[in-house]
Amino acid sequence: APWMRGNRALDLVRNADGPARSAAPLTYYSAVLAVHERLAGELWSADAWVDVARTKVMQGDLEAAEKALCQDGMMGTPDADAPLLLAEILLETDRAGRARELLLNVIQEHPRVARAHYLLGLACRDLGLGDEVAKAYRAALAIDPNLAIAWYRLGNHLILRRDWAEAVTAYGEALRIQPDDEAALFGAGLALHRAGDPAAAQEYLARLRELESELVPLLELSLEPRKPVPPGVRLRSDGNRRKEGEEVG
User: Fold this and answer.
1) Under 8 Å CB-to-CB from 223, ≥6 apart: which residues?
2) 3-class DSSP state for residue 243?
3) Inter-residue contact 141 to 147 (CB < 8 Å)
4) Per-10-residue mean pLDDT for the chain, 249 residues long?
5) What residues are paired with 241 via a beta bridge?
6) How far apart are CA 232 and CA 190, in angstroms?
7) What's the pTM?
């Protein structure tokens, strides 16, 4: 049958590539795509279509990737790979509403998939559903406490809510998993500074300097002490200071 030939060809690619699949994913997925094109028009399994979609994503062709994921029966795959990848594409193309609906369905069928809850958090963030954002990230972390990206995104969300202490904790967890994550180092330094611990914030700045991070100047600027405005002086609409009673030109 055509679908059997397609899957056998895909297996040959996988077996031949072996451990190199993780070391050189472009080589692997390019081979997958070559097999797919040779069998154009023939029926593949859901697993094969997901690999084709991943290849198209890596090539930057999100439209073709979405088309591959929308084959009949794809959304009911047992491992939820297809709907999760489709949700990522929807988020990337500013369709957070559709992504949220899809992810809610995935979670109903696969409640223990951490990535589904994490992606739901991103969708809620893009839709401005503040209360649901942290709930979704925390649900992902309850399933997989080592999902560093979810800790980092939770830290970002908490900073926006000015919950400095909780943000420090979230960034700290992200750094526990990925100690050299420059974005998390920046976030932790900023949150500590806002929480009133400038000395600890400087430690994160030092770590960024060790990594020669491009974020160093931005964190240096963020950690500069804020100079108090002298009594009787207010800011004009153009941002310059004026003495109390001075007319605004």
Assistant:
1) 189, 190, 193, 198, 201, 202, 205
2) strand
3) yes
4) 39 44 50 58 65 82 87 67 92 95 94 96 95 96 97 96 96 97 95 94 96 94 74 50 44
5) 235
6) 30
7) 0.75
